[in-house]
Specification:
By secondary structure, this protein is an alpha/beta fold. The chain is about 30% helix and about 25% strand. It is built from 6 helices and 7 strands, in the order βαβββαβααβαβα. It has a 7-stranded mixed β-sheet with strand order 2-3-4-1-5-6-7, with helices on both faces. The longest helix is centred in the last third of the chain and has 15 residues, at about 165-180.
């Protein structure tokens, strides 16, 4: 019998600066998001005027009263201490990679390495953003890199527009299906 208390699950959004983590959480959240944006004061300022310095937070309401808490990490490595803090109790990772960065495959490898322990106990789904501005490398190059890295099971990887609720929902659904292949599409 299902508990009267609603279940809450926590999904982490991480990835490179400018990949769209805050935007993705805004697109999917059923509540106004909590954000810790601050004026960018380092090299990030060349990419965008503000950056997340602690976290973003949103909630996705599921049928039956369940909720998925959405936590976005800062993308800058100098805030990497927040990655472990925010990952505590998480059920999985949505990793966003900005394809317009100079070496997005290296970014992919770096973030997978940084979250290696978390991913080993949960799962990861990958969204490649900004492919409209930078179509290469394509998804096949990402799949090849994932094979080289020996991730098992192979993470789902999608082209994603972080502004699109449907695209972000697809990433979350893929993550949830990886965690529980018997889920029904709700």
């Amino acid at each position: 019998m299902r508990s009267e208390r609603a279940r809450h699950n926590k999904i982490i959004f991480s990835g490179t600066v400018g990949a769209g983590k805050s935007t993705a959480i805004n697109a999917l959240s059923d509540i106004p998001t909590v954000s810790t944006e601050a004026v960018a004061s380092d090299a990030t300022a060349r990419l965008k005027p503000t950056t997340t310095v602690a976290m973003d937070y949103g909630v996705l309401n599921l049928p039956g009263g369940e909720k998925v808490m959405l936590y976005g990490t800062p993308g800058q490595e100098r805030f990497s201490f927040m990655w472990d803090i925010l990952s505590e109790g998480g059920i999985g990772l949505v990793l966003l990679i900005n394809n317009a960065n100079p070496n997005p495959l290296q970014d992919l490898e770096g973030y997978l390495g940084a979250f290696r322990q978390f991913i080993a106990g949960t799962a990861v789904t990958i969204g490649v953003t900004h492919m409209d501005r930078a179509p290469e490398p394509g998804l096949d190059a990402y799949r090849s890199r994932l094979i080289e890295l020996g991730l098992s099971p192979m993470p789902a990887i999608f082209r994603a527009d972080a502004r699109s609720r449907d695209d972000v929902a697809t990433l979350v659904k893929a993550l949830l299906y990886t965690l529980n292949p018997g889920l029904n599409d709700a």
